[in-house]
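Consider the subject:
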Amino acid sequence: MRVLVVEDDPQLGPWLRDTLATAFGASDMVTTLEEGRAAVAVRSFELVVIDRGLPDGDGLALLRDLKQQKPSPATIVLTALDDPLDIARALDGGADDYVAKPFEPIELIARAKAVLRRLFLDRGAIVRIGNLSYDVLNREVCVDHAPIVVPRRELAILEAMVRRIGRVVLRETLEVAAYSFDDEIQSNAIEAHVSRLRRRLRAANCKVVIKPVRGLGYLLSGE
């Protein structure tokens, strides 16, 4: 799962990005409408959190663009405005929910999970391959119904492959899944993560196989 934060506050923005990354996976942050439009043009996001008051305009302008995407991401609008008309304008503009500033992390995460739950109702929130199951919303991996702990980047890589079961997943796709825009990526980082993921699944007696496809990426399949 990937999250985009569109927030220009120099303290709130990074805090939002890190909080949502802990809960949902790789998160990116931009500070303007123009940067938001550029981000969604090059990457797909499942959740976008948008501030209303951005330096180059109202965040609702980006919201309208997002709703034209197929499939469109879940969206939450942040606002310092508590006027019911402003809240109604955000919801009428296509926002799945809104959060009024100031707010606590627990409220934001709960609201994000609620809108994502509705999003995944139509997409299948739990994917099963062999004796492995992956809960996309809660980011939980189970082997033979027993949960196993998978570190964040390995989890992002596994999710990218699970969502493309039976297809070759390009190395570049795995980099996008595991790393944010401003992360530095070592030349052998993906190979190292995949190697550790393989060992972790093997130790849990998982029956799925991650096969390298020379010069391209990896293929996940059930035995």
